[in-house]
Write a structure and sequence with these properties.
Blueprint lengths: L19 H10 L5 H19 L3 H12 L3 E8 L2 E8 L2 H18 L5 H13 L3 H16 L9
Antiparallel strand pairs: 1-2
Helix pairs in contact: 1-2, 2-3, 2-5, 3-5, 4-5, 4-6, 5-6
Length: about 160
Protein backbone atom coordinates (compact mmCIF):
# COMPACT_ATOMS: atom_id res chain seq x y z
CA UNK A 1 0.00 0.00 0.00
CA UNK A 2 1.17 3.51 -0.72
CA UNK A 3 2.11 6.02 1.92
CA UNK A 4 0.03 9.11 2.67
CA UNK A 5 0.21 11.93 0.13
CA UNK A 6 2.73 14.63 1.01
CA UNK A 7 1.32 17.85 2.46
CA UNK A 8 1.65 21.00 0.36
CA UNK A 9 4.00 23.47 1.99
CA UNK A 10 2.56 26.98 2.32
CA UNK A 11 4.18 29.54 0.01
CA UNK A 12 5.37 32.89 1.32
CA UNK A 13 4.04 35.84 -0.72
CA UNK A 14 6.62 37.76 -2.72
CA UNK A 15 8.01 41.01 -1.26
CA UNK A 16 6.95 43.43 -4.02
CA UNK A 17 3.40 42.41 -5.02
CA UNK A 18 2.58 40.40 -1.87
CA UNK A 19 1.19 37.58 -4.04
CA UNK A 20 1.72 33.84 -3.58
CA UNK A 21 1.13 33.30 -7.31
CA UNK A 22 4.24 35.37 -8.08
CA UNK A 23 6.29 33.22 -5.68
CA UNK A 24 4.99 30.10 -7.40
CA UNK A 25 5.94 31.53 -10.80
CA UNK A 26 9.41 32.48 -9.56
CA UNK A 27 9.89 28.97 -8.13
CA UNK A 28 9.14 27.55 -11.59
CA UNK A 29 11.51 30.05 -13.19
CA UNK A 30 14.32 29.22 -10.77
CA UNK A 31 17.34 27.13 -11.77
CA UNK A 32 19.81 25.53 -9.31
CA UNK A 33 18.11 27.05 -6.25
CA UNK A 34 18.96 30.63 -7.25
CA UNK A 35 15.75 32.26 -6.09
CA UNK A 36 17.14 35.79 -5.81
CA UNK A 37 18.25 35.62 -9.46
CA UNK A 38 14.83 34.46 -10.62
CA UNK A 39 13.10 37.19 -8.56
CA UNK A 40 15.42 39.70 -10.25
CA UNK A 41 14.51 38.32 -13.70
CA UNK A 42 10.79 38.46 -12.90
CA UNK A 43 10.84 42.02 -11.55
CA UNK A 44 12.98 43.22 -14.49
CA UNK A 45 10.46 41.63 -16.86
CA UNK A 46 7.61 43.46 -15.05
CA UNK A 47 9.42 46.80 -15.49
CA UNK A 48 10.06 46.09 -19.18
CA UNK A 49 6.38 45.20 -19.69
CA UNK A 50 5.35 48.47 -18.03
CA UNK A 51 7.67 50.44 -20.34
CA UNK A 52 6.54 48.48 -23.42
CA UNK A 53 2.78 48.60 -22.92
CA UNK A 54 2.24 51.59 -20.62
CA UNK A 55 0.07 49.36 -18.40
CA UNK A 56 0.92 47.87 -15.02
CA UNK A 57 3.27 44.93 -15.68
CA UNK A 58 1.72 42.85 -12.89
CA UNK A 59 -1.78 43.19 -14.39
CA UNK A 60 -0.48 42.27 -17.87
CA UNK A 61 1.20 39.19 -16.35
CA UNK A 62 -2.04 38.13 -14.65
CA UNK A 63 -3.96 38.57 -17.93
CA UNK A 64 -1.30 36.56 -19.80
CA UNK A 65 -1.54 33.78 -17.22
CA UNK A 66 -5.33 33.72 -17.57
CA UNK A 67 -5.08 33.61 -21.39
CA UNK A 68 -2.65 30.68 -21.33
CA UNK A 69 -4.55 28.63 -18.72
CA UNK A 70 -6.06 25.47 -20.27
CA UNK A 71 -9.48 24.12 -19.24
CA UNK A 72 -9.26 20.69 -20.91
CA UNK A 73 -6.42 18.36 -21.83
CA UNK A 74 -6.02 14.89 -23.30
CA UNK A 75 -4.77 11.94 -21.29
CA UNK A 76 -3.60 8.67 -22.80
CA UNK A 77 -5.48 5.55 -21.74
CA UNK A 78 -4.91 2.03 -22.94
CA UNK A 79 -8.12 0.13 -23.66
CA UNK A 80 -8.11 -3.31 -25.26
CA UNK A 81 -4.70 -3.02 -26.89
CA UNK A 82 -5.32 0.46 -28.32
CA UNK A 83 -4.23 3.76 -26.79
CA UNK A 84 -6.85 6.49 -26.81
CA UNK A 85 -6.40 10.20 -26.18
CA UNK A 86 -9.22 10.93 -23.75
CA UNK A 87 -10.21 14.57 -23.11
CA UNK A 88 -10.60 15.49 -19.44
CA UNK A 89 -11.08 18.57 -17.30
CA UNK A 90 -7.92 20.03 -15.73
CA UNK A 91 -7.74 20.41 -11.94
CA UNK A 92 -7.49 24.03 -10.74
CA UNK A 93 -4.00 23.53 -9.29
CA UNK A 94 -2.74 21.85 -12.47
CA UNK A 95 -4.23 24.62 -14.66
CA UNK A 96 -2.02 27.21 -12.97
CA UNK A 97 1.05 24.93 -13.07
CA UNK A 98 0.63 24.24 -16.78
CA UNK A 99 0.14 27.89 -17.70
CA UNK A 100 3.21 28.97 -15.71
CA UNK A 101 5.39 26.19 -17.14
CA UNK A 102 4.28 26.98 -20.69
CA UNK A 103 4.99 30.70 -20.29
CA UNK A 104 8.46 30.02 -18.90
CA UNK A 105 9.30 27.26 -21.40
CA UNK A 106 8.33 29.26 -24.46
CA UNK A 107 9.99 32.43 -23.18
CA UNK A 108 13.24 30.44 -22.83
CA UNK A 109 12.86 29.32 -26.45
CA UNK A 110 12.44 32.91 -27.67
CA UNK A 111 15.36 34.89 -28.99
CA UNK A 112 16.42 37.94 -27.04
CA UNK A 113 19.31 39.25 -25.00
CA UNK A 114 18.38 38.39 -21.45
CA UNK A 115 15.83 36.08 -19.87
CA UNK A 116 13.98 39.16 -18.57
CA UNK A 117 13.60 40.43 -22.18
CA UNK A 118 12.41 37.05 -23.41
CA UNK A 119 9.97 36.64 -20.51
CA UNK A 120 8.60 40.17 -20.96
CA UNK A 121 8.03 39.60 -24.70
CA UNK A 122 6.28 36.25 -24.14
CA UNK A 123 4.05 37.71 -21.41
CA UNK A 124 3.06 40.68 -23.60
CA UNK A 125 2.31 38.32 -26.51
CA UNK A 126 0.26 35.98 -24.28
CA UNK A 127 -1.74 38.88 -22.85
CA UNK A 128 -2.72 39.84 -26.41
CA UNK A 129 -3.66 36.24 -27.23
CA UNK A 130 -0.56 35.57 -29.33
CA UNK A 131 2.77 33.81 -28.80
CA UNK A 132 3.88 30.21 -28.44
CA UNK A 133 2.40 29.64 -24.95
CA UNK A 134 -1.05 30.78 -26.14
CA UNK A 135 -0.70 28.58 -29.23
CA UNK A 136 0.08 25.60 -26.97
CA UNK A 137 -3.19 26.19 -25.09
CA UNK A 138 -5.11 26.45 -28.36
CA UNK A 139 -3.51 23.21 -29.63
CA UNK A 140 -4.38 21.43 -26.38
CA UNK A 141 -8.01 22.54 -26.65
CA UNK A 142 -8.11 21.57 -30.34
CA UNK A 143 -6.75 18.11 -29.53
CA UNK A 144 -9.38 17.62 -26.81
CA UNK A 145 -12.11 18.73 -29.22
CA UNK A 146 -10.89 16.31 -31.90
CA UNK A 147 -10.94 13.39 -29.45
CA UNK A 148 -14.35 14.24 -27.97
CA UNK A 149 -15.69 10.93 -29.33
CA UNK A 150 -13.62 9.06 -26.73
CA UNK A 151 -14.93 11.08 -23.78
CA UNK A 152 -17.11 8.17 -22.67
CA UNK A 153 -13.92 6.23 -21.76
CA UNK A 154 -13.23 8.78 -19.01
CA UNK A 155 -12.74 7.30 -15.55
Amino acid sequence: MRKAQAKKLPLAPDPKFNDKLVTRFVNNLMWQGKKSVSFEIFYDAMEKITKQTGEDGYEVWKRALANVTPSVEVRSRRIGGATFQIPSEVRADRKISLSMKWLIRYSRDRNGRSMADKLANEIVAASKGEGAAFKKKEDTHRMAEANKAFAHFRI
